[in-house]
Design brief:
single chain; about 280 residues; alpha+beta; Ku70, Chain: A, Domain 2; 7-stranded mixed β-barrel; two-stranded antiparallel ribbon; 11 strands; about 25% strand
Length: about 280
């Protein structure tokens, strides 16, 4: 079973039951180690004391907060634990909001929330209630030395929790706005048709990280002594006429795919027969 990143109680009015959180997703990437260029030996990062001009072991390190330039107050781990709010152990549901009012830009990290020992029935009740009511729960909890506002929503098999960015953490960029008055009705109609032609069911498993796969193939090729082949550069033609580009895109989507058997059968027709058909 996955290790928990948080354990505590969830309060829902006067109802309280134990829950635990564990990560629902994590990014995957190809990682590299830093090596010495001359002999390819691993490089070790050293914690260094500038005042004494010497390396120091990690056991001699403490946390410090810089309150003025080069002036620090030392903070002990036990002191941090003492000031932890009650939400470090109790997740409190503050309110319920309509699901369509939650802008995904506020969602940060994802976790599965599971019932802990003795919490199965109230957990199932909350899950079923938010699933049928179409509401999301807004709650507060503290973990990783930070207090979070979180969203609880029904997933396929249970409650999914998302930590949220606070409003002042969302960047307000004045240039990020759209002038829709420049769009012509005919262009919009064709764009909608192209969208409909590309409609498909959402199946996350069919999407792949091509960059990661290329890196892995390149590493394997080098291990086998093969030459690294560069990825062909994409050919992007400038769009001069939007209407023409939309029409061509739509035509490509509507073009029926010719089967291999049909093509081979056509190639076998004698030339004289083809001329008669004309």
């Amino acid at each position: 079973m996955a290790s928990s990143v948080w354990k505590g109680h969830l309060t829902f009015g006067l109802v309280s039951f134990p829950v635990r959180l564990f990560s629902a997703a994590r990014g995957e990437t190809v990682s590299f180690n830093l090596l010495h260029k001359d002999d390819h030996s691993r490089i070790k990062q050293v914690t260094y004391c500038l005042a004494e001009d010497k390396p120091v072991p990690r056991s001699d390190l403490v946390k410090g907060y810089e309150y003025e330039k080069d002036q620090y107050v030392v903070i002990e781990d036990e002191e941090i634990k003492k000031v932890a709010p009650k939400t470090a152990k109790v997740m409190e549901i503050l309110e319920f909001v309509k699901a369509d009012q939650v802008d995904p830009i506020y969602l940060e990290s994802s976790y599965y929330m599971a019932p802990d020992e003795g919490g199965d029935k109230p957990y199932a009740l909350l899950f079923q209630a938010i699933r049928e009511s179409k509401y999301y729960a807004v709650a507060k909890l503290a973990m990783h030395n930070r207090e979070h506002i979180v969203i609880l929503r029904p997933g396929d098999k249970g409650v999914v929790l998302h930590t949220m960015f606070y409003n002042d953490e969302i960047r307000q960029v004045e240039e990020f706005r759209t002038d829709t008055s420049v769009v012509q009705e005919k262009e919009l109609a064709l764009a909608k048709m192209l969208i409909e032609a590309l409609v498909a069911d959402f199946e996350p498993k069919k999407y792949k990280d091509t960059y990661r796969e290329n890196l892995q193939r390149m590493i394997q090729a080098k291990l086998e002594g093969h030459k690294v082949v560069a990825t062909p550069a994409p050919q992007i033609a400038p769009v001069i006429d939007i209407m023409e580009a939309l029409k061509k895109s739509l035509a490509e989507q509507k073009k029926p795919a010719r089967s291999a058997t049909a093509v081979s059968a056509e190639e076998e027709v004698p030339a004289t027969k083809k001329r008669r058909a004309r």
